[in-house]
Amino acid sequence: MGYKAKFRVWRGEGGEGRLEDFTVEVNEGEVVLDVIHRLQATQAPDLAVRWNCKAGKCGSCSMEINGKPRLGCMTRMSTFEESETITVTPLRTFPVIKDLVTDVSFNYQKAREIPSFTPPADVKPGEYRMQQVDVERSQEFRKCIECFMCQNVCHVIRDHEENKPNFAGPRYLMRIAELDMHPYDVAERKESAQEEHGLGYCNITKCCTEVCPEHIKITDNALIPMKERVVDRKYDPLVWLGSKIFKRQR
Amino acid sequence: MTQTTAESAARKQRAQIRVRTLRTDRWWLAPAFTFAGLLLFLIYGLWAIFDKSYFVDPYIAPFSSPCLATSCPEGARLFGLAPFGDWYTLPPGILILGLPGGFRLTCYYYRKAYYRSFWLSPPACAVAEPHGKYTGETRLPLILQNIHRYFFYFAIVIGLILTYDAVLALVHKPAGLGSWILLANAVLILCYTFGCHSCRHITAGRLNHFSRHPLRYKAWTLVSKLNARHQQFAWASLFSVMIADLYVRLVAKGVINFPFA
């Protein structure tokens, strides 16, 4: 059974813009992205929205729905009251290109700053031998669809633009953790995670985990373990002493 | 390095929405409850430290255990010993509460709890924080959060002492309700302590080859199970220690005096 829903949608280019009110038809089983598309087809043909798979796997349709970062294609209209006004805005942390489309190139820049997988020099491709238990911990992080909602919600850069040059954000700190946990990665990542990629800025308030559509435990399984590895390297005198006495590789 | 401010050109490229949040749910409820819960614990702890009714045979209040000075009643002393002798005359809680207190203060879960509810950094996800500047745990004093694992080592000792207290009370004939309350508290505290993120790291989290260390990997999987419920154990043990402590003090004061108390 369809009904008319009240929508407020951010319209504008660059930072300038305003919330515009619309009344749109909603049918049973629809998601927010369906309604945005109907809006585009019937009332606002120039409304810009980024989307692709409509299956929660491409990460394109990240937006803020009633103030919360969500995937438009995975947010069912049935979760709202029919009388409710639904506010849809672009991701708040990134520059707006037009309407709901943001420029997420900050994330690509941060991705490039992380050294890629670095195997030992004497191990050739095809010679890697790993047990499943050794790699399954970091396989969780490979579920990431790069919707950038964790980057968007993290208050370190959401509320403090000035931290952007110094902070890679949860998605890329998770990437560092993934590589550091890899049995065949030999690159130094602990020191650089703290000094270059801003792990110390994270105060583990877990918003990245809360918004992740893939339910990756970013904080508990990537950021906190990485913080503990940094403690081993930089702040724990006993680990330092142990590495000197037993000549252990740190 | 490019520096930007709240009103910089880069900031102005974002959607200029002039409200703190557009969330319509009751996002303030969780930080409000957290604030109230932690404040209650602080107020109770402050009162309990200076309250003198901390021992009634065979119970010792958890906030005052271990009792390590000759000023403690003989039955309250740990293994009957008083290593601090007679020079220490202050309440026993002052001597030891810094260790479990420091463990909770630097705990990864409690950090989330009080950063959100006390420091509003942020109060909830996608709700703007009120501070103009943010450096997180990159400098003093918050960089000291990195000593969490040392508090963890002490917390194990305290947890085992509380278990010992509960077992001593249980073997006392007849074992009263207080013995079971102390035991439940000790179990919750041990679950909270061994589910700690530092414990998870120490068991095997720091390794990259689990397959070469099967015992440590097994320990890691067990700790991970506790760790998944770390928040629940943090709250459960916070309240259990208050309840157990208050119960012992009320028995010691004679307020609770039914048979098998």
Structure in words:
The complex is a heterodimer of chains A (250) and B (261). Chain A is 34% helix and 14% strand. Chain A has 2 domains: 3-102, Ubiquitin-like (UB roll) (Roll); 105-245, Orthogonal Bundle (Fumarate Reductase Iron-sulfur Protein, Chain B, domain 2), CATH 1.10.1060. Chain A is of the alpha+beta class. Chain A has helices at 32-42, 105-112, 132-139, 149-153, 155-158, 170-180, 190-195, 207-211, 218-235, 237-245, and strands at residues 3-11, 18-26, 62-65, 68-71, 85-89, 96-98, 101-102. The model of chain A has no long low-confidence stretch (mean pLDDT 95). Chain A is elongated. Chain A starts with a strand and ends in a 5-residue tail after the last helix. In chain A, β1 (3-11) and β2 form a beta hairpin. Chain B has one domain. Chain B is built from 10 helices and 2 strands; from the N terminus they run ααββαααααααα. In chain B, α2 (29-50) packs parallel to α10 (230-253), α4 packs across α6 and α7 (177-194) packs antiparallel against α10. Chain B has helices spanning 9-12, 29-50, 92-96, 98-106, 108-117, 148-171, 177-194, 197-205, 214-227, 230-253, and strands at 55-56, 59-60. By secondary structure, chain B is mostly helical. The model of chain B has no long low-confidence stretch (mean pLDDT 93). The relative contact order of chain B is 0.12. Chains A and B meet through α3, α5, α8 and α9 of A and α1, α5 and α8 of B.
Summarize the structure.
The complex is a heterodimer of chains A (250) and B (261). Chain A is an alpha+beta fold. Chain A has helices at residues 32-42, 105-112, 132-139, 149-153, 155-158, 170-180, 190-195, 207-211, 218-235, 237-245; strands at 3-11, 18-26, 62-65, 68-71, 85-89, 96-98, 101-102.
